[in-house]
Amino acid sequence: MKLPRTLFRALPLAAVMAFACAPHAQAQSLVELYDAARGYDASYMAAKSLYEANLAKANQTLGGVLPSIALSASASRTYFNYRPDYPVVNADPTKSILPSERYYGTGSAAITLTQPIYRPAVWATYKQGGPLLQQAAAQYEAAEQDLLVRVSQAYFDVLTSEDSLELVQAQKKAVGEQLASAKRNFEVGTTTITGVRDAQARFDLTTAQEIAAANDVSIKRLALDLVVGLSNAKPKRLLNNSQLVKAPTDDVNVWVSQSEVASPAVRQAQLGLEVARLEVDKAVAGHKPTLDAQVSYGGVRNVAGNATQSVPSHIYNPSAAIVLNLPIFSGFATDYRVKETVSLESKARADLEAAKRNTAQATRTAYFGLVAGLSQVLAYEAAEASSQSSLDANKLGYSVGVNINIDVLNAQSQLYQTKRDLAKARYDVLVGTLKLRQATGTLTPQDLQPINALLTP
Question: Does the pLDDT value for residue 4 go beyond 50?
């Protein structure tokens, strides 16, 4: 049985300790924060512990097919007091039945080996061990993929909120300059009070947006700290905003087909169906006989005799046996147990079909989301250039008296909103590549490296 290669990677503890002790001003990459999260995130650690518990549980099934050895021993001391109802005295005093009392001790020990020969229920339980272990491995793999996406999402959420705050502050500065210009023009009589009030309203609105953006930055940073377990984690920024991951080259149906094989959710459902089938075999085995072989070696030592004689003795009684047990009637419990397991098998089959459908839907959603996201980035880049040209034209028109102040303010607002949408779209694309691999079940920590290479050194 081949386990996923992602299980139980050694946690770079030294690196995590270095991050924890590093100055808050030092920025961390995506891979560094993920390594820190692997040693801190409660959900991931719980999944790891559950895997280890299920590993031990799966190995417990060996106990039913391997021989069992038991050792038993006992020791006792007995007070013997014999008193006849009436004395019987013979002519010969040695043959007279007289009252007597004494102490004697008894010690016994035995070792017994039992080897199951034919136990259908035990054999079905043993065969369940493999699927249960693989199911636990799939659960652990799914938890690792979930942690990868959660750390990446929190990482880029911080960058998105920081970019939004910077753009709002830049917009506020530009609106402030436009407000000062409107006031000067009003003072010299080249514009009306309407332009001043429009600029003042836009400035106040931008101030409110700046407060909200600063609060959002604090919240997103706290969320990242909660995932990775570091204080004031500072993610590195993109080195080149124009360089992103490539669009998937394979058709969406190829990804869907891959998800039906590699997805941890589908594999868990498939293994669950196999376990359910074996559970039916276990229930049916309740009608079948069992056969065991037993070998025992024991002995009894009588110290100072026993109840019938006062002479010390030793008794040894080795034995071998074949034990047959044939169930005849169990109060219909076995019959109803079979019906229960058959129904649970049908449920497991339906769960498998639902897992395949949900995984296919999630894969298609992630695939088309990534493709649309990449196209959206290109569209926003074109919109950014157009918005910048529109702003320059409105500023020129305002300076020569063709446009009014509100035209410039609207053009500024459109430009900075486009910049914010473009920044978010870029980050969403990077996370979208991971979500697509998560949907297909192929996401591994190595998939962070291409994204990590896009960050500042």
Answer: no
